[in-house]
Amino acid sequence: MAEIIQEEKGKGGKKKAKKHAPHIDMTPMVDLMCLLITFFMLTTAFSKSKVMEITLPEKLKDKDKKNQEAPRIAKSRTLNVILGPDNKIFYYTGMVEDPKNPPVLQVTDFSPTGIRALLLERNKALFNKISQFQADVTAGKITIPRDSVASAVRKLKNDDDTGPIVLIKAYKASNYGNFVDILDEMSIVGIARNTFVDINWIEEKMVETALGITPTSAQKK
Amino acid sequence: MPKIKLPTKSPHIDMTPMVDLFSVVLTFLMLTTTMRQPEPATVDTPASISEKPTPDYNMMTLLISKEGGVFLNVDNGGDTLSKFRPLILAEMGKQYNIEFTEEEKREFEKLPMSVGVPMDKMKEFLDTKEPAKRKLLQTGIPYDSLDNQLASWVLYCRQVNPKVNACLKGDSKTEYPVVKKILNILQDKNVNRFNLITNLEAVKIKDENTQK
Q: Nearest by CB to A176, which of B30, B34, B176?
């Protein structure tokens, strides 16, 4: 970044002050600034991390609360999703302790054609409603303050009575990434009702049989 | 034919606009920057489509490392000024019969990172000034049923600052039983709403919307 400073000629050099050009060499300053910019760019945490909110059902502690009846949900609407090891997902519909037709465990994964396709299929009505609403908002058919879009979507979800009720359970060999991923799928597909519940020992056994591991927890209870 | 008078021009390039531009960029970077904090454990957070930014205030962040160590970061960033940290440390000291000096409390307040030191090592941790030694002492907060210090930390954090929100920052490879245990401890202390810290994965939902 060298430069040649030319001496100013022509005015005859009457005044001594005008002999030197009033020019300051900026090159070192540019060099320094380059360094500083590089430093700041490398140290900056540009993308601020995001948060995903979850609310877990309150634990029942008091005795009188324990007598509270569990919420009744339609058997056909439930979808039990079990997070397995190696990013596998097991799912079945209905009740686990059903003597007439015991549930059949099916395997899928986190790819768009896996669990998402399944959930979309089950949640088609609500998903279409939400995406229609969002499209209308973007197209300007519905004028609504930006802040209230989320609450409007929430209301759509609350009114939903056809979509699946997803019960998410985690087998012990699953990891935190799966846990976040499945919750993420819920918000992508717009599942209205989903909750996290503890895995049942029968389900653990079912997963283990499906995986071909000798069951470990069957004798627990 | 007149020659093109290129050679007579000064080979000097005026750097001033470049300096101006650089100043602007530099000022912008300096103002927007939040220095990356050195954490006791590197954590690779999972991705989600959530677009809600991490709040700056009233946060209690539990860092869960891949190995299952838990580190607590409370009142860092936005509300360091409210000085909850020394109060929390004092309460913890009371429970575990450790008297912390004013200096130690101030040291705890100034710590820019998450802390995962068992209470019996806490004094040693705060007294030493060497980062390497400190790093060695950061073994994670004990949270098993025999010595559940995490529960006490959570309890006092909420006592000192009732508005505090629980934030979970876990590695995607953390085993689920560890997370479950920590969630249980938090739920025992009546924390039922959690913020899971994730990376934004914007592309995913875009694809989703265009397909359907």
A: B176
Question: A114, A133, A113: which is closest to A125 by C-alpha?
Answer: A133
pLDDT tens digit string along A152-193? 877 777 777 777 888 888 888 888 888 888 888 888 887 778
E strand spans, B33-151: 47-48, 52-53, 59-64, 70-74
**Report field, pTM of the whole predicted structure over 0.80:** no
Contact B196 A37 (CB under 8 A): no
Q: Which residue has the tokens 């050679």?
A: B7
Please report, as a single letter, which amino acid is at residue A166: V
CATH number of A74-123+163-211: 3.30.420
Is residue B58 within 8 A of residue B163, CB to CB? The reply is yes
pLDDT given at position A220? 47
Taking the C-alpha atoms of residue A187 and residue A123, their distance in angstroms, rounded to an integer, is: 12
Looking at chain A from residue 15 to 54, which residues have their Cβ under 8 Å from any Cβ of chain B? 25-27, 29-30, 33-34, 36-37, 40-41, 43-45, 47-54
The domain containing residue B178 runs over which residues?
47-203
Q: Is residue B185 part of a domain?
A: yes
Q: Can you tell me the ipTM of this complex?
A: 0.73
List Cα–Cα distances, B157 to A99, B89, B163, in angstroms.
Answer: 48, 9, 9
- Tell me the domain boundaries of chain A: 74-123+163-211
In three-state secondary structure terms, A53 is: strand
The encoded tokens of residue B173 equal: 């490879």
Q: What is the C-alpha to C-alpha distance for residues B65 and B172, in angstroms, rounded to an integer?
A: 9
β-sheet bridge partners, residue B71: B63
